[in-house]
Design brief:
- The chain is built from five helices and 16 strands.
- The protein is of the alpha+beta class.
- The chain folds into two domains: 150 residues, 2-Layer Sandwich (Alpha-Beta Plaits); 128 residues, Alpha-Beta Plaits, CATH 3.30.70.
- Strand 13 and strand 14 form a beta hairpin.
- Helix 1 runs antiparallel to helix 2.
- The protein is globular and about 50 Å long.
C-alpha cells in the first residue's frame, strides 16, 4: 500500500493554547480548500452531483459503506510555542497516485484563517516536507519537489514480548460500549476491520491479507493506560463533540505473528474511531531482547 506523508509548518501571529488539538480545525480548512479548487457545482449537495470522481467528494464526503466510513487520510495538527502550527497529512492507497492534487490542496491552506475561541488567526505557510524530512517547498521558492512515498506491506513477525503504545486517544467500542479499559479482542478485531476496509476500497486489495487471521489471546504483562479527553469543534454542526479515548502503554506476551504484521501496518494507518482527526496512533517496541531495536 502506498503511503504519503506531508508535513506543513505555519507561522501564526499570536500565542494559541499549547494543549489545543487543531486536527479537526485543520481538516475543516482543508475540506473547504478541496471544495474551492475541485468542486464544479458548488450549489449542489454532493449526493446530487453527477461527478463521482471529484477529488473533494472522494476524499472528504464519499461514503462507501452503510456500516462504517473510513477516509484514506489522517490529519494531525498542534500548536508549538511561540508561533508555529504544525500539520501532518497522511495519505494511503491509490490516492497517493494523485500527488499533484494533494499538494495543490495543502498549498492552498496558505493564508487561510484558523478560528479558535472566537479569535481569527491567519496561517502563513513556511514550508512543506515529506515523511523522510525532504524539503519540498518553502515560502521563498516557486518550484515544488516531488515527495517520496513509502510502501506498506503485510509482514508477519514473531515477537515474544511487545510493548504497544497508544500515542493518541484510542476511541474504541467493545461489545457495544465505549472502551475505557483495554481489551485485546475488541482492539484486534476493530483494527483488522479497518485495515481490510482500507485495503479493499482504497488499495485494490494489494496487501493480500490472509482470509483468516489468528487473533490469539496474548497475555497482558503490564498495562498503564488512562482516558485522554479530546474535543472536536464541528464547523458544520456548530457544536463541540468528545472524541477522547485511551492513551498509555500495554506490554503483551505471545502476540501471534499475524497480529504483529497487522500492528506494524497500524503504525501508519492508526486504529479505532476518529482516525481522520489523528486518533489511534500507535507505536511498537520489541521487549524480547533489551538490545533489540524498535520493530
Amino acid at each position: 500500500m502506498d503511503y504519503l506523508e506531508l508535513n506543513l509548518a505555519f507561522h501564526v501571529n499570536h500565542q494559541l493554547q499549547v494543549s489545543s488539538d487543531l486536527s479537526s480545525a485543520m481538516r475543516g480548512l482543508w475540506g473547504r480548500s478541496l471544495k474551492k479548487i475541485y468542486c464544479y457545482q458548488k450549489q449542489l449537495d454532493c449526493t446530487q452531483c453527477s461527478f463521482e470522481n471529484c477529488p473533494y467528494y472522494v476524499l472528504f464526503e464519499k461514503k462507501l459503506s452503510s456500516f462504517e466510513q473510513y477516509h484514506p487520510y489522517i490529519i494531525q495538527s498542534r500548536f508549538y510555542p511561540p508561533d508555529i502550527v504544525m500539520a501532518k497529512f497522511k495519505f494511503f492507497g491509490w490516492i497517493c497516485e494523485h500527488q499533484e492534487k494533494l499538494i495543490n490542496s495543502v498549498l492552498n491552506l496558505n493564508h487561510t484563517i484558523l478560528t479558535r475561541d472566537g479569535v481569527e488567526t491567519p496561517l502563513n505557510l513556511i514550508d512543506i516536507r515529506d515523511g523522510y524530512n525532504n524539503l519540498l517547498w518553502t515560502e521563498n521558492e516557486v518550484s515544488i519537489a516531488r515527495p517520496k512515498t513509502r510502501i506498506l506491506k503485510y509482514r508477519p513477525q514473531t515477537i515474544d514480548i511487545l510493548e504497544l503504545e497508544l500515542k493518541t486517544p484510542l476511541r474504541q467500542k467493545n461489545q457495544g460500549r465505549l472502551m475505557d479499559r483495554f481489551s485485546w479482542e475488541g482492539f484486534s478485531k476493530s483494527i483488522i476491520g479497518r485495515i481490510r476496509y482500507l485495503d479493499a476500497h482504497f488499495n485494490r486489495g494489494t496487501l493480500q491479507l490472509p482470509t483468516n487471521l489468528d487473533l490469539g489471546n496474548p497475555r497482558i504483562l503490564q498495562i498503564d493506560t488512562s482516558w485522554s479527553e479530546k474535543i472536536r469543534l464541528s464547523y458544520r454542526q456548530e457544536a463541540k463533540m468528545s472524541i477522547g479515548g485511551l492513551i498509555g502503554k500495554i506490554v503483551l506476551q505471545d502476540v501471534t505473528p499475524e497480529m504483529v504484521g497487522i500492528l506494524k501496518l497500524a503504525r501508519y494507518l492508526h486504529a479505532g474511531k476518529q482516525c481522520s482527526f489523528g486518533n489511534g496512533e500507535i507505536g511498537l517496541r520489541n521487549l524480547s531482547d533489551s538490545s533489540a531495536p524498535k520493530t
